[in-house]
Amino acid sequence: MKKTFITTLFCVLVSVACHSCSAEDGYRLWLRYDKIQDEKLLSEYRHAIRSVTVKGTSETMLAVRNELELGIGGLLDQEVTFSNSLYEEGALIVGTLHSLQELFSASGIEIEEEFENEGFAILSTRLNTYDVILITAKTEIGLLYGVFHFLRQIQTHRSLSTLSVVSNPEI
Questions:
Q1: Are 71 and 30 in contact (CB under 8 A)?
Q2: Which one of 51, 65, 79, 153 has the lowest number of neighbouring Cβ atoms within 10 Å?
Q3: All residues at 6 or more sequence positions from 53 whose CB lies less than 8 Å from its CB, including other chains
Q4: pLDDT digits (tens, 9 = 90+) for 10-64
Q5: What is the rounded CA–CA span in Å between residue 44 and residue 88?
Q6: How far is CA 170 from the centre of its chain?
Q7: 92: confidence class by pLDDT, cuts 50, 70, 90
Q8: Are 97 and 111 in contact (CB under 8 A)?
Q9: What is the rounded distance in angstroms from the CA atom of residue 52 to the CA atom of residue 83?
Q10: Average pLDDT value for the chain
């Protein structure tokens, strides 16, 4: 009888512990995308990111898109609007240097290629009359690093209006 009680108690405790552990998986422990609590800042971010354009359809670019959907959706507490348009107010445009070459040429934007294969650039700029944010890199892996960096900027309450980042992550 005592052995059955102890076995049952042990099973209940393990079950409760496992349930608590599953509430936060490893991904969520590393990358929390909880809503921005400062209402003024939240409003600024929602104004700055009204749509997202991801140039490319490879597996890596799908990962970029999914991360932006999770990150922006969670941080701004709203559904992410994806678009194919490059010319919209509040567009977040993500693509390799190659995929955005026409955009850079047409708009006169010069991205200095100070970054290596896994490096990236994040830039707040104007395209025609629209305020946009660009994330670009030589490679798609560089874009993924850039997206994580961008989301971290939001998490740490940084201004998005004056972004000018060039980074070469060390591996």
A1: no
A2: 79
A3: 82, 83, 84, 85, 86, 91, 92, 93, 94, 95
A4: 444 444 444 444 455 554 545 689 999 999 999 999 999 999 999 999 999 999 9
A5: 16
A6: 19
A7: very high
A8: yes
A9: 6
A10: 85
What CA–CA distance (Å, rounded) separates 147 from 149? 5
Mean pLDDT to the nearest integer, 73-86: 95
- State CA 35 to chain mean position distance: 14
Pairing of the two strands 130-137 and 120-127: antiparallel
Letter for the amino acid at 139? T
121 CB burial (10 A radius; 0-12, 13-18, 19+) = buried
Longest dimension (CA), the chain: 81
Task: Check residue 129 and report its DSSP letter.
Answer: T
The whole-number pLDDT of residue 17 equals 47
Identity at 78, one-letter amino acid code: Q
d(CA 22, CA 46): 31
Two structure tokens written together for 41: 């800042």
